[in-house]
Structures
1.
Amino acid sequence: MDQNNKNEEDYGYQLFPERNTQTFKKGSFAKNLFTYNHKCQVMLKFTLDTSPYAKLLLSAMKRSGCTVNKDRHFSCEDCDGTVSGGFDATTSQIVLCQNNIHQQSHMNRVVTHELIHAFDHCRAHVDWFNNFKHLACSEIRAANLSGDCSFSNEIVRLNLGIKQHHQKCVRDRALRSILAVRKVSREDAEKTVDEVFDSCFNDHAPFGRIPHSRRDAEHAYRDFQNRDRYYANL
Ligand SMILES: [Zn+2]
């Protein structure tokens, strides 16, 4: 038991208090929970139906033999602090923090970010717990390809800059994600991120390019479908 609890802490599960408890509270809190949960489900469905980022990732995973099921692989839950989501590799589930996601655009981004982790998990058999480089690489890819650092998001953060800035944003966000889920020193995290940065930053699968906007993602999705059709004709 102790050992388990300790591991859970190390892997950041303390941020997702509902992960291991089945407790439900009564009264208005439960009502709020239901409302939040319902809203989260509706926004999730909208993302899966309409986001070209999500549709491309789901298609690519399906092709690799990892079919994603909305009810089985997504879970809307309350989370601690300001985390928006997470990928639980032990259950292959994406956690969406219903108490911290209030806008559709935010839901789109979180789902895309976590689907990139799921895609990496499906494609590369990532060793999330023992190989720190794997985690760092997936966080770099998620920050780079999900739109976390896209232009409009950066304007919102009043952080306008040149192209180099995109790389800096990706590095910062990857670091922040790692430090949120692992008990490592900032120094160690920086060292690992820098070691794998170039190869992971340049790995754009399954998009084929960095999707800086919804239009980019739509083009990438269309290309992916065409590629599929081409292979089907062979
Ligand atoms: Zn992440």
2.
Amino acid sequence: MANKVAAVTGSNKGIGYATVAELCRRGVTTVYLCSRDVGRGKAAVENLKKEGFNPLFHQLDITDKGSVRAFAAHLKGKHGGLDILINNAAEITTEFIKTTYNDARKVIDTNYNSAFIIQEYLYPILKDNARVINISSDCGHISNLNNKYWIERLTKNDVKVEDVNAFVDWFLDSVRNETLKVEDFKEPFFLPYRISKIALCALTRIQQREIGRGISINSLHPGFVQTDMTKTVVPEYLVELMKQNPKLTEHLGRVPLEKSGEAPAYLALDVDQSVKGRYFWHDKTEKDWADPNLDVLAKSEDFKKVMKNSGIEIPNLQPIY
Ligand SMILES: NC(=O)c1ccc[n+]([C@@H]2O[C@H](COP(=O)([O-])OP(=O)(O)OC[C@H]3O[C@@H](n4cnc5c(N)ncnc54)[C@H](OP(=O)(O)O)[C@@H]3O)[C@@H](O)[C@H]2O)c1
């Protein structure tokens, strides 16, 4: 892994942290652990040092232009650029069912709009044949949508940034105006997160078309990993119960936290350089992102079955706007 320089956004914990550890384990010479909070980031670096790894630290808030610009200048000055960029930092809605405008705005800013800041400042310093991995989700697959108009507009071969932005605006406007239709979505929970990740996958394909210089940009569903993020949306007791339902386990694709860096590292180091603009699954297989009929999502029906079998009261799962 001679002289490769890698950076993982939002890597003070969770999948990002595991990815930094995996890149170090795989022998990448220079790996940046990035965190918006200096204290949390430096503590994470110290933990990895105890495991025998030696990542570097840099502050990075992906929603803050100044922060991203400063990191880009640092990378350019110190290393001449960047070989591997793993866009991992993200957040989820604060509530499972309820969708509010402010929450939606915040999640979409962090998970989707930040990609334009990264594109503006970090893409120009990517070295030839660099690799970018956008960490998406199963929630980012097109099959999350039922709305035929948006499925067609987002999956057309010449999709443009304006199409994706229009999709995001359509969603935000309908939340603000309370005109959102549940029928437009397969699973109507944490919708802003789903919208942000669908938009990120669509943008991945556009960015790939435009970037050139041999650079690859792929997106990845890292699997269901128990982290602070999933604790927000899937309570611990349900995670245990999920083991009772093979379909749910298969669809969720449970990945142990300490192994969750393997798929990002595969795309960063192993997959052929010709693989570009694709969507990958945690088991390192490619899935057709644009196929609306692909049966890959964990369904609330299966969650309900598991709860019913265990005598747990099923909450009202009707979305509230
Ligand atoms: N866990 C899963 O099952 C799962 C499934 C599918 C997809 N994913 C995706 O995998 C990625 C990692 O998720 P995770 O489960 O590891 O989540 P996590 O444990 O909540 O970690 C998220 C990381 O992102 C950082 N972050 C959030 N907003 C940021 C910002 N504005 N600037 C910089 N860093 C920011 C957080 O920093 P702080 O510590 O400062 O908050 C944290 O380091 C995300 O893209 C997520 O959507 C996860």
